[in-house]
Specification:
- By secondary structure, the protein is of the alpha/beta class.
- It is built from 10 helices and 5 strands; from the N terminus they run ααααβββαβαβαααα.
- It has a 5-stranded mixed beta sheet.
- The longest helix has 21 residues.
């Protein structure tokens, strides 16, 4: 049986048009599926079940992920000489559904926290950035940073300069993904925090001046001088990390 209307608009029975799915995903990716239903009713005057919002949003999310994976080996049109890359993580709240028991088929909802990791890269002296994020492993975040770099034209002659807060996993991923073509630097804001933590241990009487002097030395490249000074106050290995600000500063 031929139904002219369905052929004309490209929508099958019990299906949704592409434009409608686009609007659903717009809300479904922004708020909870239940709230998306309310917003859809408010903006478009259309009733749509929560299950439809969930299935449509997940369908397009999976398609986007698949397309992203297919583009993994694509590189940018221009060959970049120097790229700036960053990696960072932040804890975000998540909801986990778990089965209660073999007798009770209902799923119980639990809340928790999980680290989301963001990768970003840009060309030197450019404001245009490429972002990719994951809830996966540190290796996944490192791979995404490599993908960002490729989309900007990363090649065998590109220098990759990366910044971070001093977390070991960031430095580890920069070394793994870029090897000798990449270097890693703790950004000045976090470096100042590490130095500030060590200041009281190194100079209890004039911590502000001590910190300012060390900051100026780091700015002018006197890294070995600062590290040598810190090591003379470094705590022993058996001291707990929270009680060893100098050792922590040296390790980053």
């Amino acid at each position: 049986m031929v139904i002219p209307f369905t052929q004309g608009v490209g929508v099958d029975c019990r299906d949704y048009s592409i434009l409608l799915e686009r609007a659903v995903v717009d809300f479904g990716a922004d708020v909870s599926f239940g709230q998306a239903v309310e917003k859809f009713k408010e903006h478009y005057g259309i009733d749509i079940p929560v299950s439809a919002v969930q299935s449509i949003t997940k369908k397009h999310a999976e398609a986007s992920y698949g397309m992203q994976e297919e583009e993994a080996e694509l590189s940018g049109k221009n060959k970049a000489r120097c790229l700036i890359g960053e990696l960072d993580g932040a804890m975000i709240p998540i909801v986990i559904f778990e089965a209660n028991s073999s007798l009770d088929k209902r799923k119980w909802r639990k809340t928790g926290w999980k680290e989301a990791r963001l990768s970003v890269a840009r060309e030197h002296k450019s404001l245009t950035k490429i972002f990719l994020a994951t809830l996966g492993s540190t290796e996944r975040a490192g791979n995404l940073l490599g993908r960002c770099a490729k989309r900007l034209g990363y090649n065998d002659h590109t220098k990759m300069h990366c910044l971070g807060d001093g977390a070991f996993w960031i430095r580890e991923q920069v070394e793994r993904v870029f090897g000798t073509k990449g270097d890693y630097l703790v950004d000045f804001f976090h470096l100042s925090e590490y130095l500030s933590g060590a200041a009281e241990k190194c100079c209890a009487d004039a911590t502000r001046k001590w910190l300012h002097d060390r900051q100026e030395e780091m700015k002018t490249g006197q890294i070995e001088k600062v590290i040598g000074m810190l090591k003379s106050y470094e705590e022993k290995a058996d001291v707990k990390e929270e009680n060893g600000p100098v050792r922590k500063c040296v390790s980053v």
